[in-house]
């Protein structure tokens, strides 16, 4: 992987982590995600 692609993937990971982390527990529940799942979901964007 080239460094630019790694950097873009990392930014996507952080953005996803921050956006999901800022949601309320109720909103997360409505979309079927628990706080425990957030890192796993965000890590998919880093691959």
TrEMBL record:
Naturally occurring in which organism (per UniProt): Rhizobium lentis
Ranges for domain YjiS-like: 4-39
Pfam families cross-referenced by the UniProt entry: YjiS-like (PF06568)
UniProt cross-references to InterPro entries, sorted A to Z: YjiS-like
Protein name: Uncharacterized protein YjiS (DUF1127 family)
